[in-house]
Amino acid sequence: MGEVIYPVTEPGEGSAGKTGNWRWQKPIIIIDKCVKCGLCWVYCPEPAIYLDKMGYPHVNYEWCKGCGICAHECPSKAIDMVSEYE
Amino acid sequence: MYRPKIVENLGEDEWIYAGHPACHGCGAALGLRHLLKTIGKNSILVVPAGCTSIIAGTMNAATFNIPFIHTAFGAAAAVASGVAEALSRRGRDDINVVVWAGDGGTYDIGLASLSGAAERGHNILFVLDDNEAYMNTGIQRSGGTPRGAWTTTTITGKKEEKKDIMKIVLSHHVPYAATASVAYPLDFNRKVKKALGIKGFKFIHLMAPCPPGWRFETHMTIEIARRAVLSGAWILMEYENGRMRLNPPSSNMLDKRRIPLEEYLMMQGRFKHVKEELLEELKRDVELRWSEIKEILEKQGKR
Questions:
Q1: What distance in Å separates residue A2's CA from the closest CA in chain B?
Q2: Domain ranges, ordered by start, for chain B
Q3: What is the pTM of this model?
Q4: Which fold has domain B5-302?
């Protein structure tokens, strides 16, 4: 009798592969303009935005799909959406 | 180590992993993220067929870091009832049983099992993620689609009104029922926390805009959810033991301090065809809902 193998799935990042490849525009955070309100982090559906020790946001481009919600919601306009095709 | 206040309040733990298959700017994925943050790892999520079955990941991949049960379309509340009862027999009342169902799995196909679970009063939290059509199968109309909205099965706009699911749920005399919006995560967070502290059947109706289905640019998800609330088309409220309370910002909008309804509708491609006459009708629908609420609040005040 051989060992029974169960099809168990393990949770982890990238259940749809590298979703960064879906991106057609790229958010660039301008740290000088950032007021550390945390709204980009709150509204990211991915979540692809993480905060560093100082509270500044950074984008994880491996998973960011480039929807642009963070740039639209940023109250100090500190996030630019730049085309991926330039 | 500095953290903004809102980040501290919502909590930094993530139970949903990045790189999931939800569309760009998905409102449901954002709602799920905040729901899981609030309910934590000591929970079991029950999900009927819908977008979230896909977001959960296909074979050999899983997006959620908590126990997750896929069920048939109509069975979510029934499965959750069984899970909740089994847990309570084992003395594990510390585990939250949460249903996350789309509008198809609540308004239409899941209505019977929802009604059964609410009537029996099982200890579950039912979260309705309302994107107002069957988005996963290709934007077909559902009972939750509002009047006038374009879908692939109502190409000239839906003629019927959106089903008032809140009234159906309240007729079961549930201890807690509320509405929420993805644009107000702190409000949603507070409501979920409150619901988890109450024993019995709890219901939260969350509005989650869908960029491909509602036909708008992906970065507008939050803006549209916010405008829905500010225009009065979506009302933030909660019922505790049948007593209604409006939540900010809806609580300031009883006396018509709202933005025009067009500012919400005209941002979406699905309402593009709406002209004068229909627009007036839709505005009347909104007014009617508000006058109903006013009536309820006045009646409560007298008691």
A1: 22
A2: 5-302
A3: 0.94
A4: Rossmann fold (3.40.50)
The ipTM assigned to this model is 0.91
- Whole-number Å distance between alpha carbons of B150 and B148: 7
Condensed to tens digits (0 to 9), the pLDDT of residues B249-260 reads 999 888 878 999
Test B16 with A47 for CB contact under 8 angstroms. yes
> Which residue of B22, B60, B64 is in closest CB contact with A45?
B22
Residue contacts between A and B (CB atoms, under 8 Å): 122
CB B21, CB A53: distance < 8 Å: no
**Helix, strand, or coil (residue B240):** strand
B187 in helix, strand or coil? helix
In the numeric block, which tokens belong to residue B12? 């930094």
Instruction: At B51, list the tokens.
Output: 């977008």
Domain map (residue ranges) of chain A = 19-83
Q: Are A30 and A81 in contact (CB under 8 A)?
A: no
User: Residues B63, B120: contact at Cβ < 8 Å?
Assistant: no
Residue B247 has a CB neighbour count (10 Å cut-off) of 19
Which two three-digit tokens encode residue B87? 């847990």
Give the C-alpha separation, A10 to B55, whole Å.
15
Q: Residue A7: is its pLDDT beyond 90?
A: no
Residues of B with CB under 8 A from a CB of A: 1-7, 10, 12, 14, 16-22, 24-27, 29-30, 33, 56-65, 185, 211, 217-223
Residue A8 has pLDDT above 90, yes or no: no
Over 70: is that where the pLDDT of B191 sits? yes
* Alpha carbon B143 to its chain's center: 14
A19-83 carries CATH number 2.40.50.100: no
CB B235 within 8 A of CB B289: yes
Residue A2: the pLDDT is 79
Burial A14-28 (b: 16+ CB within 10 A, else e): bbbeebbebbebbbe
B59/A7 Cβ within 8 A: yes
Per-position DSSP letters for A63-81, written without gaps between them: T-----HHHHH-TT--EEE
The end-to-end CA distance of chain A, in Å, is 59
Largest CA distance in chain A: 65
pLDDT above 70 covers a percentage of chain B that reads 99
CB B9 within 8 A of CB B189: yes
Say yes or no to pLDDT of B303 above 70: no
